[in-house]
Amino acid sequence: MRKIIFTVSELLATENRQIAYLLGNRNISDKIVKSKKASLKKHGQLIPAVVVDAETALEQNLEIIDAETNKKVTIENAHEYVVVLDGSHRYKAHKELCSEDEEYRGDFYVIYSLNPKLAVAAMLAEINTATNPWKGSDYGRGAKMLNQAVELPLLDFINELTDQGFSLDAASKWATFRGDITSKLLVKAMNGEINSKLKNDKGLERGKKLLHAALSSISKDALKSRTIIDWIIAQYDNTIDEKKHLFTQRMEHFFNNLNRPEAEFIEKAKGERGKSTKEGIICEILNDLYNKKY
């Protein structure tokens, strides 16, 4: 029976395998790596990282990169690697400690998946939703990574936004005027169930135009939550059908012509305890400015 738990040193010596990552898996966060370094130094590694053979991942049409060089792993050299499914932050923290802290003498443990019959995509989804929940951006990246052969421009745009710090809800609404692109829907896409909502990009250009216009006057940070896009959607819903075809053009004009003092008024809005929420105040400001201009 094959041994399933190794240190990285043993893995290299016994199986001649190095560490690789899945291309397109969740972004490595410097903040999380920093916290993992503190934990590793204080307590050591408490649980092993989960890995699979690189050959298995490649056979399932996933792309892999060397954890050290970022070079793509191919079928020709796949036998030299295992792929980390859970533990990328811990491994990066370990490597940094090894290179910068002389007192750190830990080795890094990995464990082969205990259910090798489970597809890598299903394994990745289960690990990261049942045991270590992802944030919004991770779901979109996971769905994209596991459906690379499918053209999904709507998902590409949502991922572009969540990678910049937009909430998944806000990104969905900028792309579709609805909050239908949820983590639950994206988990299903990771398992091959691509909902028709992910394929429906008929409103995508509208969202791109409106976001571009909003960014011309308002800071990106103020647009990352759903407040301003919710206000835009409410304006659209309140527009009579005969004038909806002019909505995008009018809203672009509105944002393109906000001056800096007006934009700062929106950006610096704060809630008042017992009176109005920040969201409510921003909507009041936008309503006032919009009604004055139109």
Provide an overview of this structure:
By secondary structure, this protein is α/β, with parallel strands linked by helices. Helix content is 53%, strand content 9%. It is built from 16 helices and 6 strands. The chain has helices at residues 8-15, 30-43, 54-59, 88-100, 120-131, 136-145, 153-162, 168-176, 183-190, 196-199, 204-215, 220-223, 227-237, 247-256, 260-267, 278-293, and strands spanning 5-7, 18-22, 49-53, 64-66, 81-86, 109-112. It has a 6-stranded mixed beta sheet. The longest helix has 16 residues, at 278-293. It is elongated. The mean pLDDT is 90.
What order do the helices and strands come in, and which of them pair?
Blueprint: E1 5-7, H1 8-15, E2 18-22, H2 30-43, E3 49-53, H3 54-59, E4 64-66, E5 81-86, H4 88-100, E6 109-112, H5 120-131, H6 136-145, H7 153-162, H8 168-176, H9 183-190, H10 196-199, H11 204-215, H12 220-223, H13 227-237, H14 247-256, H15 260-267, H16 278-293
Parallel strand pairs: 2-5, 3-6
Antiparallel strand pairs: 1-6, 2-4, 3-5
